[in-house]
Protein 1
Amino acid sequence: QITLRESGPALVRPTQTLTLTCTFSGFRLSTSGMCVSWIRQPPGKPLEWLALIDWDDDKYYSTSLGSRLTISTDTSKNQVVLTMANMDPVDTATYYCARRTVAGTGFFDIWGQGTTVTVSS
Amino acid sequence: EFVLTQSPATLSLSPGDRATLSCRASQSVSNFLAWYQQKPGQAPRLLIYEASNRATGIPARFSGSGSGTDFTLTISGLEPEDFALYYCQHRTNWVFGGGTRVELK
C-alpha cells in the first residue's frame, strides 16, 4: 500500500521559514520514474503547485514562488522536505504532498491528507 | 503566462443529470491534461489523465475528452457522491485550473 503523510508546524510567524516533511511508504523515490511533489491550497481557493523532486534528484519549482522554495529528499528515511522562506499570512494554506510516476499516469495519483499551516503573528 | 481556465465556476444540477465541465488552456498542451475531484476536507483524487484515460478505480460515468486547448470532463448520470470540486491540471508546468464546483440544485 502506498501512503504519504505530511507533517510540520500548524502555526508559523511572518518572516519565519516553514519546514514541511512528507513521509512516504510503499515505493522508493530512487526508482526510475518516481517523483514527489508539493501542492498547497489556501482556504476557499484553488490548488497551487509548488515544487517537485524526481528519482534523479532533479528539482522543479513554481515560477512565482521558486526563489522562496527548497525541496530535498532523505532517501534513507523515505522523506521529502520542503522549506519555504519568508512566510506571510497569504501563505496560510493546506499543504499536500503527492506522488507522480512518469511511467504510470504521469500525474499525481496518490496524495497525502494534507497539513494545515497558519501564518500569523 | 500559461493559464488553465475552467468554466463554469459553479454547476447546479440534480442527481441523474449529465455534467459537462470545461477546461481551456492558453496554449496547446497536446493531451497532457488531467482532472481531479476534491471533496470538502479531503485531498484531491485523480480521475482522468492524458485527457481521456480513467485512473484506477474511477467509475465509467466519468469521461474526458479534448486535445490541444479545449478539454471536457463529462459525468454521465450524477451520483450523490459526485457533488464536489473539480480541477484540471497540465503536466508540463503543473498548473491547475481555478476549479468548477458541481453543486446540488
Protein 2
Amino acid sequence: EVQLVESGGGLVQPGGSLRLSCAASGFTVSSNYMSWVRQAPGKGLEWVSVIYSGGSTYYADSVKGRFTISRDNSKNTLYLQMNSLRAEDTAVYYCARDLYSSGYGVFGYWGQGTLVTVSS
Amino acid sequence: AIRMTQSPSSLSASTGDRVTITCRASQGISSYLAWYQQKPGKAPKLLIYAASTLQSGVPSRFSGSGSGTDFTLTISCLQSEDFATYYCQQYYSYLLTFGGGTKVEIK
C-alpha cells in the first residue's frame, strides 16, 4: 500500500528556513515522479515543485530560487528545503506521487499534509 | 504558465441534482487534464485524468469531457458525500497548474 507521511512543518519567521520531509512506503521514491503541492489557508491548490525519476527538478515561479526539492534514496524520503520564507508561503504542504511510475503529471497519491506558518 | 479558469467558483445544489463544472485552459492542452475532489481538512483525491478516464474506485456518476481548452466535470446524480471542492489540473506543461476550485454546497 502506498503511504506518504509529511513532517517538518511549523512556525518560522519571515526570512527563515525550514525543511519538509515526506517518508514514503509501499513504493520506491527514486523510481517515481514526486511533487510538493501547497494550499494556503482557505485558498486553492498550488503546485510547488517536482523531481523526476531521472533527477530533473522543476519549480513554480513563486518559489524558484528559494526552494529546493531533493530525495534520499537510502531513506526513501522526499524533501523540500525552503529558504527566504515569506508570509505568502504560509500553507499546508502536501507530498504527492504521480499516478504512474513512468511519470504522467497526475497526482494519484497524496500525504496528509504539514502546515507551515511564516509569521513574526 | 498555463492558466486554468474554473466556473462557477461555487454552486448550491440538492441531492439528486445533475451538476456541471467547467474548466478552461489559457492555451490548448489536448486531453492532459485531471479533476480532483477535496473535502475540508483532507488531501485531494483524484477523480478523473486524461479528461475523461475515471480513476479506479470512483463512482460512475462522475464523468469528464472535453479537449483543447474547454473541459467539464459532471456529477450525474449528486450524493451527500459529493459536497466538496473540485479542482481541475493541467499536465500538458511540465509547469503544472490547477484551477481555482469550485465549491459544491448543499442548497
Protein 3
Amino acid sequence: RKEVEQDPGPFNVPEGATVAFNCTYSNSASQSFFWYRQDCRKEPKLLMSVYSSGNEDGRFTAQLNRASQYISLLIRDSKLSDSATYLCVVTPKIRDTGRRALTFGSGTRLQVQP
Amino acid sequence: DAGVIQSPRHEVTEMGQEVTLRCKPISGHNSLFWYRQTMMRGLELLIYFNNNVPIDDSGMPEDRFSAKMPNASFSTLKIQPSEPRDSAVYFCASYPQGVPTNEQFFGPGTRLTVL
C-alpha cells in the first residue's frame, strides 16, 4: 500500500464548478500536511498547508481528519487556470531528521473546461 | 531572486553512459532534496542532505546512483551506467530547515532520456 493515496483522475469540470479531491495517508505519525500544485511539465509548488482545524485561502479550502487519516481539498468557482495536477503531501515531525521528508501522493489531475 | 537552479534542463544519452545532474539550492537553505518523477511511480524522494550531510539515501534505487554535496551551494546526482528505465524528470528542492511551513522550493527539473 502506498503511503499517500490519491485518485489520479482526471477530473473534468466546467468553469465555475466546485470540485473536491481526497487523499488518505497510512502513517499515523505524520505531522504536517500540504497540497502542492504541479502544472504540466513544471515543478511542484506549494498551494497551501493543511491544519487540523481546516483552513481556507480564497477559493481553496483544505481539511484534515486525523482519526481517518484523510485530507481533502475543495476548489470553489473553478477557473481555467486551476487546471493542473494536485499533489497531496505528508511529512513526519519537522524536527525528525532521521526519516524521509515530504512523501508525495501521485497526484490528481484537474481539467477545467470552458 | 534566483530560485533553485538545475542543469542541464534536458539530457538525452545512450544506455551505458554516465549522466551528471547538477543543482544549486537557494542561498541560505540548508536542506537539499533530490526527487525523481515518472508517470508510473509519481514523485519519489531519492536522497536528502542537511548541512551538506546525506541524511536519508534509502530512496536511491541502486549502486548506479550516487549523490554528493561538496558545499552548501552545489549538489550533483550521478548515474553510472545509465539505463533506459532511468528516464524520468529529476527535481532538486531546498528549504531552510526549521521553518514552520516546511515548504520545499523545487527547481525546474532535468528531463532525462536514456536511449
Protein 4
Amino acid sequence: GAGVSQSPSNKVTEKGKDVELRCDPISGHTALYWYRQSLGQGLEFLIYFQGNSAPDKSGLPSDRFSAERTGGSVSTLTIQRTQQEDSAVYLCASSLGGLWGNHQETQYFGPGTRLLVL
Amino acid sequence: GQQLNQSPQSMFIQEGEDVSMNCTSSSIFNTWLWYKQDPGEGPVLLIALYKAGELTSNGRLTAQFGITRKDSFLNISASIPSDVGIYFCAGQLVDTNAGKSTFGDGTTLTVKP
C-alpha cells in the first residue's frame, strides 16, 4: 500500500499473555520508529530502526518489550507477560532514513494498534 | 530526560477565530515539528522547523522556532470546522538520536460552527 500499515488495528488480551504488533512501513523507507500513546497523552518514543539494526532502544519501558525488523521492512513489537499499564495505542512510523544535511526527514505514521489488557 | 510542556491543553473556539498554541522545553532542540492527529489515525506532519528564529507558514498555519531553541508556537488563522483534532508539538535533537522525537501532550481543538 501507499502508507504505513499496522496490524491488528485492535487487540484485547488478558493480563500475562504475550502480544505481537506488526508494522509494514512505506516501501523503500529504511528508518522505522515505534511510539506508544496513552489516553490523553503525547507520543512516547520506544525504539528506532535503521535498516535491521536498532541504534536506539532507550525508550523500551522494560525487558518485557522487544522489537525486531527483518529484511529492512516489516517490524514486530512484542510485549511479553502483558500488564494493564501496557494498554495504549502503539504507533509505528517510517521515513526514508538517514540525515540530509541538518534536516530530519518527515516521519509518516500508521493508524496504530489499540491494545487493551484486561 | 527532555520534557515538553504544551499549552493550552484544550481550546473551544468559534469558527473564524484565530488559534495559538505553544510548547516549551527544559532543554534545546534543533528541530521542532507540529503534527495534527484525527480520531483513530496516526499524527500527520503539518510544519517542520529547522533553524532558530525560523517562521514558516503552511496555508492558514504559521509556526515559529524560538530563538532560544527551547520553544515553538503554532498559530491557526480563521479556523474552520475541519481544524478539529489534537495538535502535537515535537522536538528532535537530530545530531544525537536521529528520528527520536519528544512529544508534547497535545492541544485538543474544538471548533464550533
